[in-house]
Amino acid sequence: MEALLDRFRAANTQVLGVSIDSIYCHANWAKSLGGISFPLLSDFNPKGAVAGSYGLYLDDAGIDDRATVILDADGVVHHASSVTPSGQRDISELAALCEKVNEGHENTLKSFPGPPGLEDDTVLFVRSNCMFSTNAMAALGNLHIGTIPVRNVTDDEAALDELVAVSGKAQAPCLVVGNNARHEAADIITYLAGRVSEL
Amino acid sequence: MINLGEIAPGFTLQDQFAREISLDQFNGRRHVMLLFYPLDFTPT
Q1: Does A190 fall in a domain?
Q2: Around Cβ A18, how many Cβ atoms within 10 Å?
Q3: Average pLDDT for chain A
Q4: Domain holding A126: CATH number?
Q5: Are A188 and A138 within 8 A, CB to CB?
Q6: Which of A38, A71, A87, B8 has its CA 20 to 30 A from that of A129?
Q7: Who among A8, A56, A109 is closest to B36 (CB)?
Q8: A181 and A144 fall within a common domain
């Protein structure tokens, strides 16, 4: 799916995954697949409520069906299909359907603001065996960010000294951008996504 | 399953980057493909 994202983007189509898993489960699973940058939504509380509103929550099994719904930019449903939980979607067939929905719409859509990109002086400090550092690293993988320096302070005293000098404390993870230090993993991840994600 | 021609129900949910994503934010800007699936760690 990630490999075909450009085709969906060219058809002005936003891809959104939806399941009942938590955002932490989503992040780790996505990382394990080599990184998923499009949003995986957590339909978690109340469980399956959004899937239910589309008639796609399987009450007996307590999970969402494996199903695809394509909407145009006005929210009108153009396609809805299920391959059952054990089935497999034909992604290129779905891409062709999205391209068809987009026909005639190319000039009527408002532009979507693009991300500003990362600042040049962005550095991520992490620590080994730290869940929050692991979460921050998963976000780098999912956003395909390979350009910013990552300093592990666990066995690197120079990195630790640098972290204390720029942020005032030895706490990692810490994302430093110029003079600004973020310590909360959720803040770090949301900031990075906001800088680079085209959704 | 939802019918063709209906207006899709709106929603706001968190994603793997802890962002709030609303269907509304794509209105008039992008078409949307929703991929519902049973569980993480199964084929998308």
Answers
A1: yes
A2: 25
A3: 95
A4: 3.40.30.10
A5: no
A6: A38
A7: A56
A8: yes
The angle subtended at Cα A111 by Cα A79 and Cα A37, nearest 5°, is: 65
Together in a domain, A90 and A9? yes
A14 to B33: CB separation less than 8 angstroms, yes or no: yes
| Pair (A23, A86) in one structural domain | yes
Instruction: With beta carbons less than 8 A apart as the criterion, state whether A151 and A159 touch.
Output: yes
- A13-70 pLDDT, tens digit each: 999 999 999 999 999 999 999 999 999 999 999 999 999 999 999 999 999 999 999 9
| Surface of B (4-43) touching A: CB under 8 A | 4-11, 13-19, 21, 23, 26-41, 43
Range of the domain at A70: 2-102
Say yes or no: A6 and A67 in one domain: yes
Number of compact structural domains in chain A: 2
Q: What is the pLDDT of residues B7-35, one digit of tens each?
A: 999 999 999 999 999 999 999 999 999 99
pTM tops 0.80, yes or no = yes
DSSP state of B9: P
